[in-house]
Amino acid sequence: MEGITITVIQNLHTHTNYCDGADTPEEVVLCAIEKGFSSIGFSGHSFTPYSKEFSKIGDHTEEYKKDIKSLKEKYKDRIEIYLGLEVDMFSEPDLSGYDYLIGSVHYLKKDGVFIDFDKGAKEVEEIIRTCFHGDGMAYAKAYYKTLAQLPVYGNFDIIGHFDIITKHCDSRNFFDITSKEYCDAAFEAAAALKGKIPFFEVNTGAIARGYRKTPYPSVALIKEMKRLGFGAVITADCHDKRKLDYRFLEATELLRECGYKEKYILTKNGFEAVPL
Ligand SMILES: [Zn+2]
Ligand SMILES: [Zn+2]
């Protein structure tokens, strides 16, 4: 990766202590300025009453919105700040008043029950055993069928962590991600989202948290997204301000290897392409 520089650094996937991030929004803003960002976007999790963790924290969406808007004003001479939301597909929040929206699937719904699968390998193994009769491929297919429904729930700008279902693929063989059966399921979801959500993210968050060695999504999926005409954004899915630009060089290189020559960033005029 020698000689590679990053043209414009921006992270649009940022969590704070309003949801499950470690830092206050202001701490994140100050860190972004220190790191040389000219802009940053916050994407707090939408309130999910069906989640054990989030129902404990409670719904702080309105305070979150107010806080980010006031920081936007306070730091306007030093950094551009965008107000976003990472919407869990089933949460159906009020989507008004945001600069951008990330659409994500963190839960599967089976027989009216929400299954939180964004968990450790042991929990995922248990989910596959109890909810999918031990069939990992059925689990992966259920995820992609759900993901394909995203546009029904809102006008999202960015598809969040497209293949989050592969979170443990470096350590566990729950299903074969190189198989035709798996690729068909993932590519079908991509085809269903084409023309409805313009961007996907190359997300380094699972590397930052020690689950994976490479960003989401896989090389095969990035190439398919390119073929289908999706634009790419690079994000850190940041829960810790120190990792706001975690492995962005690697993500840049990955996009280039997959044929991308540009990425998208959010500006005051909307999303704009910049060279990689
Ligand atoms: Zn997420
Ligand atoms: Zn996130």
CATH architecture descriptor: Alpha-Beta Barrel
Which segments are poorly predicted (pLDDT under 50) over 5 or more consecutive residues?
none
CA radius of gyration: 18 Å
Total number of strands: 10
User: What is the CATH topology assignment?
Assistant: TIM Barrel
Structural class: alpha/beta
- How many domains in all? 1
Your description of this structure?
The protein has 276 residues and is an alpha/beta fold. The protein has one domain: TIM Barrel, CATH 3.20.20. Helices cover 33% and strands 19% of the residues. The protein has nine helices and ten strands. The strands form three sheets. A six-stranded parallel sheet has the order 1-2-3-6-7-8. It has a two-stranded antiparallel ribbon with strand order 4-5. The protein has a two-stranded antiparallel sheet with strand order 9-10. Strand 4 and strand 5 (113-116) form a beta hairpin. Helix 6 (180-193) runs parallel beside helix 8 (219-228). The two termini are 13 Å apart. The model has no long low-confidence stretch (mean pLDDT 95). It binds zinc ion (2 copies). The site of one zinc ion has 4 residues, from loops.
Spell out the blueprint of helices and strands.
Layout: H1 25-34, E1 39-45, H2 52-57, H3 61-74, E2 80-88, E3 100-104, E4 107-110, E5 113-116, H4 121-131, H5 136-147, E6 158-159, H6 180-193, E7 199-203, H7 205-208, H8 219-228, E8 231-235, H9 248-257, E9 262-267, E10 270-275
Parallel strand pairs: 1-2, 2-3, 3-6, 6-7, 7-8
Antiparallel strand pairs: 4-5, 9-10
The protein binds zinc ion (2 copies).
